[in-house]
Design brief:
49 residues; alpha+beta; two-stranded antiparallel sheet; 2 helices; 29% strand
Amino acid sequence: MAIGPVCKMTVDEKKAPVTSDYKGKKYYFCASGCKKAFGKDPDKYLAKK
């Protein structure tokens, strides 16, 4: 299972409705809205807190 970078929801990689490749890594999303938000500013969601 993967954790969606936007909403932090658990996403099954085999059933993820949408994915995105960024800097050589695949990210999984629960919905297209999360992918769209990620696409606007990926580094915002990947920054370590």
